[in-house]
Amino acid sequence: MKFNIITFGCKVNQYESNVMKEIMLHHNFSYEENLANCNILIVNTCTVTNVADKKCLKMIRHLRKNYPKVILVVAGCSSQNKQDLYQEMDIDILIGNKDKSKIADLLNKYISSKKRYVKFYNDRNLEFENMNINTFNHVRAFIKIEDGCDNFCSYCIIPYVRGSVRCKEFSEVIKEATNLANNKYYEIVLTGIHTGRYNSNGLDLSDLINELSKIDNLKRIRISSIEITELDDKFLETLKNNPKVCNHLHIPLQSGSDEILKKMNRKYDLKYFENKVNKIRSIRPDISISTDIIVGHPYEKEENFQECLNFAKKIKFSKIHVFPYSVRKGTAAEKMPEQVSEKIKKERVKKLIELSNKLEEEYFNKFKGKTVDVLIEECDNLNSMGHTSNYLYVKLNEKLEKGQIYSRVL
């Protein structure tokens, strides 16, 4: 039987979809790009914002309408979050975030019984669901080393749908990374819901990075995202001494106002954030530091937003991922007064994106005329495109081999 997987959301979801694909292939299902030729369609959903939920629901309705005879499977954060809504839909196999690794077994049971399957786990204290991959659908391979979050930021639903922090065993990560490196994936992206909280029997993220760096074929180790509070002295020492760690950190700020950071239940203030960034840059002066910022959180007045703009300019982020605040039912911020209007959110998003574009250009221009190493991720007959260690997107006017790293003058 032929299948396809449609993925929404973060790197964790992308990793889990790759795992499901590999499991399906191992169980003699065949992957098919053309949805019209599929017997099975799997949707891996996201619920980080209202927009994400709407996109997932729209896709599922579209698939059921256009492919009425297909076996429809839905999994992920949105289905976990909005269980009642999804159970009313015409879905054959419906799960949340657990049991994605059992996808082939669930399908085989459904094929033989034709009986609808619905299963959710609503306990936050879950064991880590072990998953491994040998291939990936990108040149840069992701490894999920952690799941869950215990931070309970006021705006965020993810701790409720992903459960508490739990981690992959140290030796399992090393084994998976070794296999991927031997399969010519020269860059590994370590990912999780809260990657910086990695801990396996007392071994932390720094220990993991240092052990991974001993893999000969592995050239780059990238961290998908890490909280400023987790960049301790041990990690900074690793950053200083380990050349395989990519020259890029994505550190979510979320707000450039101390007042709003408190409302968000974030665990730092602006002074702490700035001091830590200065420490990082004293170790690696040219490092790229990108961030996430939410605009329009409840209580955010114009003066708070101006503080945010000024702080972002001061830090000189290499890129800002901007998100308008989205009400998530069941979170602390949902019940807060002084909600910001959609019109004001849009205006603030636009201003922050304009700043991001300017800062991104300034950072890129620092490297013009310098030699950079580019991992080639896409090619056509004339050009090759890819990213540097510090995550600059580079287009080269020559045909090069996909998956290889080349030194070129920018």
Describe the protein.
It contains 13 helices and 20 strands. The model has no long low-confidence stretch (mean pLDDT 97). It folds into four domains: 2-119, Rossmann fold; 134-246, Transcription Regulator spoIIAA, CATH 3.30.750; 255-362, Transcription Regulator spoIIAA; 371-409. It starts with a strand and ends with a strand. The chain has helices spanning 11-26, 50-66, 77-81, 83-87, 103-113, 158-162, 170-182, 205-212, 233-241, 258-263, 270-283, 302-315, 342-365, and strands spanning 2-7, 30-31, 40-45, 71-76, 93-95, 117-119, 141-144, 146-147, 166-167, 187-191, 199-200, 203-204, 220-223, 248-250, 288-295, 319-324, 371-379, 384-388, 393-396, 405-409. By secondary structure, it is of the alpha/beta class. A hairpin with a 4-residue loop joins strand 17 (371-379) and strand 18. It is globular and about 60 Å long. Helix content is 36%, strand content 21%. The longest helix is centred in the C-terminal third of the chain and has 24 residues, at 342-365. The protein has a six-stranded parallel beta sheet with strand order 2-1-3-4-5-6, sandwiched between helices. The protein has a four-stranded antiparallel beta sheet with strand order 19-18-17-20, with no helix packed on it. A three-stranded parallel beta sheet has the order 7-10-13, sandwiched between helices.
